[in-house]
Specification:
Blueprint: H1 3-8, H2 44-57, E1 61-65, H3 68-79, E2 85-89, H4 94-104, E3 110-114, H5 118-122, E4 130-134, H6 146-153, E5 158-162, H7 167-170, H8 173-176, E6 180-184, E7 198-202, H9 204-217, H10 223-233, H11 236-256, E8 260-264, H12 274-280, E9 287-292, H13 299-303, E10 321-323, H14 335-341, E11 347-351, H15 357-364
Parallel strand pairs: 2-3, 2-4, 4-5, 5-6
Antiparallel strand pairs: 1-7, 6-7, 8-9, 9-11, 10-11
Helix pairs in contact: 2-10, 3-9
Length: about 375
């Protein structure tokens, strides 16, 4: 039985239900409910999801959160303190960037952001206490190989990887050297744009500390969300196989389009990290970012030409979606910060779904 088969096979409850129940109770009768007590602390349905995520991540332990940002903030707050040297790739989700730049610096954390790419990360002339990267970055799709980071910085450094865009299906951050693997479960993990959640996986000691921070801050996942995420994860392998295939084909077609200036996708041979991604990734994931050649005066109006692909500030669903990073996902960044990341007005981020390839491509041509 493979790991993914184990995920599909739910644990049966005492009544023999084929689906693990949704425990909507806020509290549990003592002493028999001692393990759970109160659902903000622990809940059987959420615990079952954590077990499943640990299987996919190959981790000793996992704790689940109300959102990906709750997972990130709780993880940071469990490992950072005044004077901690935090090294981060600047090409990350804007809210993660803002958290480190605008919040933790005020608390005395010495945060250093590097330009996009591994070369910049590895060229710093100090020893960081904590390193944070996205395995595949958003929106530039740069690849941060955790094994290289671990080898370069040594065992004393705490390495945190946001594995949202790669998922454990395409790349296992913990096996490659990360101490903590974070996910926004709202994205590819659940895969249906109907749940918001996050997770942190790693060894029992570090996750135990993160879990205590979750309980202190209150960013706990609710049981119905846990049920939806687990149900989505049962189809993750077949969804990602289709998404990987579709995204690679779309990226190739965009690369050949005279209306497109540049395409960012990890499995394209033109990608700056292709020498590594072609060896380390099982697939490139679902994010294809591209830059149009021509100036567009109004992107809201321009994207309204699409008839089937929705404009949405999320990614990772079974349906293809598109966004304009400057006005959507990265709108909170200053112009100089966007410029440093290589984000500009002509950039679009496509989250490729599982539809027929021609269904996606025919609609996409309306904005090229």
């Amino acid at each position: 039985m493979s790991m993914w088969d184990e995920i599909i096979k739910s644990r049966l409850d005492s009544n023999g239900s084929l689906r693990f129940p949704v425990y909507l109770s806020s509290a549990f009768n003592l002493p028999e409910g001692e393990r759970y007590r109160y659902s903000r602390e622990n809940n059987p349905t959420v615990e079952e999801l954590a077990r499943v995520i640990s299987l996919t991540e190959g981790s000793e332990s996992t704790t689940c959160f109300s959102s990906g940002m709750a997972a990130i903030s709780s993880t940071f707050m469990s490992v950072l303190k005044p004077g901690t040297k935090l090294l981060m790739g600047s090409d990350c989700f804007a809210r993660t960037y803002n958290l480190a730049q605008k919040v933790f610096r005020q608390w005395g954390v010495e945060t250093c952001f590097t330009d996009p790419g591994m070369d910049s990360l590895l060229s710093v002339n100090f020893k960081p206490d904590v390193i944070f990267t996205e395995t595949i970055s958003n929106p530039l799709t740069r690849f941060y190989d955790q094994s290289v980071i671990r080898s370069h910085f040594g065992d004393e450094t705490v390495i945190i990887a946001d594995s949202t865009l790669s998922t454990a299906f395409n790349y296992n951050s913990l096996h490659e050297g990360a101490d903590v693997s974070l996910q926004s479960l709202s994205k590819f993990a659940s895969g249906h744009n109907d749940a918001i959640g996050g997770s942190a996986s790693g060894n029992s000691k570090i996750i135990g500390n993160i879990d205590q921070m979750r309980r202190n801050l209150g960013g706990s996942m609710d049981p119905l969300t846990a049920f939806l995420v687990k149900r989505g994860m049962e189809t993750l392998p077949i969804r990602m196989e289709r998404i990987n295939k579709n995204a690679l084909e779309i990226s190739r077609r965009l690369s050949e389009s005279p209306q497109v200036e540049n395409v960012y996708y990890p499995m394209l041979d033109s990608h700056p990290d292709y020498g590594n991604t072609s060896k380390k990734l099982s697939g490139g994931g679902g994010i294809v970012t591209f830059i149009l050649k021509n100036e567009i005066n109004n992107f809201t109006e321009h994207l309204s030409k699409l008839r089937k692909i929705p404009r949405a500030n999320t990614l990772g669903g079974i349906e293809t979606g598109i966004s304009h990073p400057v006005s959507m996902s990265h709108r909170s960044l200053l112009p100089d910060e966007m410029k440093r990341l290589g984000i500009n007005e002509k950039m679009l981020r496509l989250s490729v779904g599982i539809e027929d390839i021609e269904y996606i491509w025919n609609d996409l041509q309306l904005i090229l």
